[in-house]
Each structure stands twice: as structure tokens, then as C-alpha cells.
Amino acid sequence: MPLTDTAIRNAKPKEKPYKLSDAQGLYLLIHTNSSKYWRFRRTINGKDTTRALGQYPIMSLAEARKARDEFLKSLAQGVDPLHTKPAKIISFEEIAREWHARKKAWTAQHSSNVLRAFETHLFPAIGSQPINHLTTQDLLVPLRAIEDSGKLELASRLQQRTTSIMRYAVQSGIIKYNPAQELAGAIETNKSQHRPALPLERISELLSKIDNYKGRNLTRIAVNLNLLVFIRSSELRFARWDEVNKEHSIWEIPAQREQLEKVRFSHRGSKMKTPHLVPLSIQAMKLIEELKLISGEEVLMFPGDHYQNKPISENTINKALRTMGFDTKTEICGHGFRAMACSALIESGRWSRDAVERQMSHQERDSVRAAYIHKAEHMEERRPMLQWWADYLDACRQEFIPPFDFKWQKEL
After folding, report:
1. What 3-state DSSP class applies to 138?
2. What is the residue extent of each domain of the chain?
3. Whether 65 is catalytic
4. How many other β-carbons are positioned within 10 Å of the β-carbon of residue 87?
């Protein structure tokens, strides 16, 4: 007769363990100490096999029968669950760490920052979940939390990396479908940041205000030099003296710099992650000689006002521009020097697009052209181009001259 809950509750221990049978191989084993355990017994290929299911009353009679039925169903399908090892549960965190470990090209600092973001925002929410069970909604939960906190850029980056992790899981044969691809458009993104630049017609006004700047001399040099070479903020701020080759009037910004102790992001070099060569005009070299008298004994070319081992602030040039009377949100900011230089070089009609793009250190979207531009430094054209720009600025100190009309005295 099949077992009943009453019969199980009333079963008392005996001098030896004994069984109470249910049906189809399920029975309850009662030990001498009153403990009761569910067992499932089946003959497979002529061999009796027993499997422990659980302890009563933690596992009820109904639950024990359900477990037995699942085993019987598997056997009917030709699968022996008693001898087949259960599939290993692979968590999202395991795959995320495996994906992260394969990013050999990342700097140590960047790698650490990415992993810290995972550990802070993703792993607590979905790290322990089986990766093959995750849905688009599951993946969206931690991203929404970041978005709601206002950290839109972080949310966007983690969305991209989550998609890459799940794509890696598909490519590794762990899952068949990438649910993260449906996250596209789910997270709000920051609007493109506007980097204001003065129209070239106001360049004489800018130069006049820079020349009459009464602030720190090192700051004045930084503003002037940044205008002459129009490199990015971090490329200028973290500059080291050993990057300047005075003999050849060239500044080589490395792909990555040595990290300075307790100086955040000081490892940053060229944004494109490849060395960037900057020809130095006569005017730029004069500024560098002047700067040498101020900070030549330091590692950094532009040390801060209070700590020589730390660079000027990322806001130093913009603060100087505000002191000069410019609105750095609507008129001109340090990054806007790049747009002004690019406009003048193109409008002059003297320089090839490739030379201008290489000097701007822009990311070429066309992969074939990108490889060509990277290999071809165009130094024969870029050297006179930078000198033309410096001379053009000098000429505009008196009054504005359209780039195309500037009669360059050094023209060959």
C-alpha cells in the first residue's frame, strides 16, 4: 500500500533500521535514532542503484514522490540521473571575470577600475545567478539602479560591457542567445558635451587677453603652449620633461605614462593609445625654454601650485580663460583650441586632410585609412604646418587675417 503522512509520522524506530515502501522504488528509511530519510531504488542494466533524496520532514511525502517521478521520466528518456553528473552551474561573475582576464591590452589601472565597477555594481545584483538563466530584465536591474543615481556615463559603459560579457558566453558555447543585446536604448545617455570654440574672427581678441593675463606665469605658458600645439588636456597636464626632444624640436607623447604615486589618471598618455608626435614651432620652443626655468628640475612640466609632484588641475586653463572674461561654457574652453586650429588649417587650403587628422590625433573611422594614417606620420608636412599655425597666430595679434589670405613668409 502507498504511504500516507499519518503512517510516516507514527513510524517508530526499531532495534535495526527498516524501510517503509511507497511505490515505484520510493521508500522511507527509518534509523534507530528516529531519523527518517527518503530513498529511491531502481534496477538499471541489471544493477540495483539507490539514490538519497532528502530527509523527512524537511522533504515531504509529496516532494519525495515528485523527485521520484522526475528520475523515472529521465530514465524513460534514456538518461540515467543516478550516474550522470549534474551540469555545472556557471555564474555571471565567473564568466565576467574570465572575460575581464582576457583583456591583455588594458593598462593595469584601467583593468582594476573596470573590475571594481563590476564588484560594486554588477556582482552584488546578478553575479551569483546562473548565466544561462539571466534575462534582459535581470541584466537591466543593476543598470537601472546606476542610471537612477545619475551616473549615466557609468551606466552606459557597464551596459556595453555586460553586452560584451554575454556575447563572450555565446561565443564560448555557454549560452545560445545573448539577452543583453535587447538592452540597446534602455539606458539614458549623456548628450554630447559641447566644447565651445571662438570663431576665427575673434582670435585677435583671444590672443590679446592671453598676452595681458596677470595670473601665474606657468599658467600663462600652459595656455599659450596648448594653443600652439592643441593637444588634449590630459596629454598636456601629465607631460614629463623627458618627452621633449630639444635637438629635434619634437614632443613625443607616449601611449602610456608611468603612474605617479597618488596622482589619479597620471598614467594617461596619448588618447589614441599610440605615441603621438608633436612638432614644436620656434614659438613653442621659446615657451618651453621659459617653462624650463620654472619647472625644469621637476618630473612634470606643469606641476601644480602647491605640490610639485602633482600636475596643474584639469580646470587650470579654463579658469584662466574665465579670468580673462570668457564664458567657458558658451564661448571658448581649452579643448576649443583644437577646433580653432583645425578650422584655420583646413581653411588655409595649404595642408592635406591626412596631415591635419594625424596632427589632431583623431580616430579615423575607416579602418583602411586608419592603418594608413597611423603608419604615415606625415612629418614632412606637419612640421611646416605647426610653424604656419604659430606664425599665423602672431600675425593675428594685430588684426584678424583670414587663413586663406595669410601670406606666409616662410613659405618655400
Report:
1. helix
2. 5-76, 92-183, 200-405
3. no
4. 8
- What confidence tens digit (pLDDT) does each residue in 155-210 have? 899 999 999 999 999 998 889 999 998 888 888 766 545 678 999 999 999 999 99
Instruction: Give the whole-angstrom CA distance, residue 317 versus residue 223.
Output: 6
Catalytic-role residue among 36, 65, 232, 237: 232
Active site residue 365: no
| Topology of the domain covering 200-405 | hpI Integrase; Chain A (1.10.443)
pTM for the model stands at: 0.57
Per the CB < 8 A criterion, the answer to whether 38 and 64 are in contact is yes
Burial of 33 (0-12, 13-18, 19+ CB in 10 A): exposed
335 tagged catalytic: yes
Q: In what order do the strands lie in the sheet with 18-21?
A: 18-21, 26-30, 36-44, 47-56
Give the active site residue among 121, 161, 335, 382: 335
Residue 283: all three cell numbers together: 614659438
Which one of 268, 338, 378, 383 is the catalytic residue? 338
Which range has the worst mean pLDDT, 18-22, 74-78, 378-382?
A: 74-78
